[in-house]
Amino acid sequence: MGAAEVIPFEEVRARKQWDTLRYQLHERFDQWLDTLETQWDKPPSTLSEVTATVWALRQQLTGGITETIVAHVQRGEHDRTQSPCPRCNRRLQARELVCRTVETMVGPVQLERPYFYCRPCRVGRYPFDEAVGVVAGCKQLDMQKAATQIVTEVPYDTAQSLFRDLTGVAFGSERLHTVTNQVAEGLTVVDVAPSREEITRRVAAVAAGRWRRPVVVLGIDGAYVPTRPDSAREPQEGRRRTRAKRARWRGQWRDVKGFRLYLLDEDRIVHLLRWHQVQTEEQLGEALRQVKDAGVLPAEQVRLCVVADGAEWIWKHVQMLFPQARQVLDYYHCAQYIHKIAKAHYGPSLQSLEWAEATMTRLYMGRLSAVLGGLRRMQPTSDEAAQAIANGWEYLNAHRGRTHYRQLRRGGYPLGSGGIESSHKFICHVRLKRSGAWWYETNSNHMLALRCAKYNGTLDQVFVRYQQRLRKTSE
Ligand SMILES: [Zn+2]
Predict the structure, then answer these.
(1) Structural domain includes residue 303
(2) Is position 94 within any domain?
(3) How many domains does the chain have?
(4) Which helix (H) or strand (E) holds 336?
(5) Ligand 1 centroid to residue 126 C-alpha, Å
(6) 331-351 pLDDT, tens per residue?
(7) pLDDT for residue 246
(8) Given pLDDT bands bounded at 50, 70 and 90, which one contains residue 463?
(9) Span from the CA of 139 to the centroid of ligand 1 (angstroms)
(10) CA of 464 to the centre of ligand 1 (A)
(11) Are 82 and 92 in contact (CB under 8 A)?
């Protein structure tokens, strides 16, 4: 009985609170209508005239409403008179109320909050800000997130104008740079990897109704991006006038090494995880190890297979970290060797084409020994042909164990590394390779990490981490 009496009282209280807020919001709206009225000396008639007017005043309304709601729900923090010092725990008395305006996607929001200061520790704080979760600087997390979404797709200058035109909020190009690099700072493959639960869910979806465990492909490959040395950074403001007009640095194409884990579902690829960075072989190996140690891949529920070209460094890491994985030499890289031989040996002729096709078919049927034997028996027609034949033989022989294409096909394994190559194109080239764009290595890696996160579906978790980091540094 007692409880039954309490609930209606709580309800009444909540109702009253809501009524108060509602009244305040109406007041806000009225203020906005006053502004609107002054803008309308001549009433607009077309839809675009109306939307243009509302668009121009929109932030004022939505920002204002937000301000009212925040002030309402954080009334306790606003009225707070005491707070402990974060350092010595001494009880501090509230000083004056200080106004601060922050920028959000819905417009500027003004916050009025009490200031606390500990004289002995020389520490000031705003408990209100911590309760509301505002971050240092004007631009709040929602804006930073939107900015990240856009700069990971288009160059900074375009991002700046798109941002302004589509949201009505200004975000300078330089600030976009800073925010991007701050958000991406220190990201590792584990930070941008989906959780084990999420990956297990995707595996289960593909496994449903199948009698064999699904194949997870690990594709590893390299690509090139244009970089510039750190020495190309602009001198400090004061020295800018003396800067030479022509660039003193020389751009360099650097190797982006990347890997991608994906599921095969018939002819479809179900993406799991990718990671691309300008990095050394060792760093790539380390990233692979982190993925393994984090246990995000439910190894016992899948058949792991690694597809790559002939690069020795790749197989070294694979052998060490995933010794049980099926190894596949990219079939299309074999084709390149075979076509080179055909061209050198037979010249541009029908015979050349026929030989190449027959050889590729033999490989496809898993008859590597026949192919190797055939290469041995060839009588090279030139030095060039001899070299091509020797190269092809060595290549195929070195990767013997990775060319059982017939068995692999039966097992449902892929023959080609298209999944990682398309990932390189999509993650690196689309954003980083633009005419005139030369990237500092750090910035290119930040951009790559964010693009990986975005298309791994983990940008939200990257922002949670970012927010935690900001909180830690502000403490
Ligand atoms: Zn103190």
Answers:
(1) yes
(2) no
(3) 3
(4) helix 331-346
(5) 14
(6) 999 999 999 999 999 999 999
(7) 60
(8) very high
(9) 29
(10) 30
(11) yes
